[in-house]
Amino acid sequence: MIENVYIPYGAYWCTPFSRWQGSLAHLHSVRLGAYVAQQALGARKVAPENFDYGVLGLTIPQQNSFYGLPWMAGLLGAPQISGPTISQACATSARVIACAADEVEMGRSRCALAVTTDRTSNGPHIYYPAPEAPGGTGVHENWVLDNFSHDPLAGCDMLQTAENCAERWQVSCEEQNALVLRRYEQYEDALASGEGGCFQDRYMLRPLDIPDARFRKTVGSLEGDEGIYATTEEGLDKLKPVRESGTVTYGTQTHPADGCAGMVITDRDKAHELSQDSGIKIRLMSFGQSRVELAFMPSAPIKAAADALSAANITISDVAAIKSHNPFAVNDIIFARETGADLETMNNFGCSLIWGHPQGPTGMRAIIELIEELVMKGGGYGLFHGCAAGDTAMAVVIKVGE
After folding, report:
1. Mind listing the pLDDT tens digit for each residue in 153-162?
2. Is there a cis peptide before residue 16, judged by omega within 30 degrees of 0?
3. What is the helix (H) or strand (E) element at residue 38, kind and residue range?
4. What's the rounded Cα separation, in Å, for the pair 125 and 137?
5. What is the pLDDT of residue 136?
6. What are the residues whose beta carbons fall under 8 Å from the beta carbon of 42, sequence distance 6 or more?
7. What's the average model confidence in pLDDT over 287-315?
8. 3-class SS at 395?
């Protein structure tokens, strides 16, 4: 169990997510992460001088991203900090937070800046020289599309991992459709204006001024998540499975997106100093990771979550709220069956199945929403879990309140 790592209340942020080839498709991910972090820290009155460490999460290369965290930190006004740039597919956010937490827990740093950012739109096309090949001809790769469509070890695409789990756990297309309707309903709850306003306004930078590609002038505004389609029972019923004799349709899986998110990770005393409400304590309790058999990616979070809960000395029944990265509806269904979690109340206020998947920042947004849900509940334990490429997963346990 982690003893002295905290997140100051309100010292986190996220952009709206924009569907593939949408309003953020022209922006450099590292520069967008710095642009947004600078605005968010300024609005929260957190001076960049507070940081003595940083971690950047990025899974899709951008021009000059070789310089990673130091470049981003310099752009946002924190040239004194260094740290790694981490890429772990869909588990990048959890790993970034774990890396920052370890640094603080071990006393090597006191206040860490964690930023995650990705642009699935317009991903790089890479050429790999092969001088010993016939004619010296190398091979090329579309970084995003080619890796979505082929796991070089398992020999299949990610959709097949969902179908494998659907077959093993006997999950029907109808059951997946019903879950998507519930998840969309939960997302709609986040947009409703109730007491205290809209849920997303508790953390999201919106409207987001969209800069031009050189970050010199504003060319538009993003009011909220872009490219989410209204979901109905009739609409889902019309969709046929992507694979013949399969169960997963385009309506029961997530979509690629662009965006970024960030948070401050520090010790108890510094969290008290930087918090927007010093009466709210947010403690990072534990992490878990797992890897399962080849081509069964959606089942990986089951063990990762169990390990994180065990490390925090609690059980699933002690958890007040659960968020998941669920690229397929199958993920949540089999997780609930295996753990006893309530399928209906997981992922209140939204999840990646609905608001999309920019990879790097996906999990961080879910954890931010988990924090805010726990605050609304008056505190308690929260669990985040999510699968990642390579049939792996990570999980995080947090606690709001003493």
Report:
1. 999 999 999 9
2. no
3. helix 29-43
4. 16
5. 86
6. none
7. 98
8. strand
- CA–CA dist 347, 341 (Å, integer): 11
Amino acid identity of 192? Answer: A
Round to whole Å and give the CA distance between 227 and 356.
9
Which residues 6+ apart lie within 8 Å of 335 measured at CB?
301, 302, 305, 324, 341, 346, 385
Residue 335 near residue 162 (C-beta atoms within 8 A): no
At 193, the pLDDT band (50, 70, 90 cuts) reads confident
Over 80: is that where the pLDDT of 402 sits? no
- CB of 98 within 8 A of CB of 127? no
Residues near 288 by beta carbon (within 8 Å), at least 6 away in sequence: 303, 304, 305, 306, 307, 308, 309, 310, 311, 385, 394, 395, 396, 397
When pLDDT is cut at 50, 70 and 90, the band that residue 145 belongs to is very high
Contacts of 216 (CB under 8 A, 6+ apart): none
Mean pLDDT, residues 80-95: 98
Q: Locate 363 and state its tokens.
A: 């999990």
Residue 311 has pLDDT above 90, yes or no: yes
- Rounded Cα gap, residues 348 and 345, in angstroms: 6
Distance from the Cα of residue 301 to its chain's centroid: 14
Residue type at 90 in one-letter notation:
C
- Tokens, residue 117: 């950012």
| pTM, full prediction | 0.97
- Phi, psi of 94, deg, nearest 5: -60, -40
Helix (H) or strand (E) holding 397: strand 392-400
* CA dist 6 → 41, 102, 204, 313, 387 (Å): 17, 12, 20, 18, 24
Average the pLDDT over each of 72-81, 127-136, 386-395 and give the range with the smallest value: 127-136
Q: What radius of gyration do the chain's Cα atoms show?
A: 20
DSSP codes joined into one string, 119-181:
E-TT--EEEE--TTSGGG--EEEEHHHHHHH--TTT-S-HHHHHHHHHHHTT--HHHHHHHHH
Q: For tokens 């949408």, what's the residue?
A: 22
Report the chain's mean pLDDT, rounded to a whole number.
Answer: 97
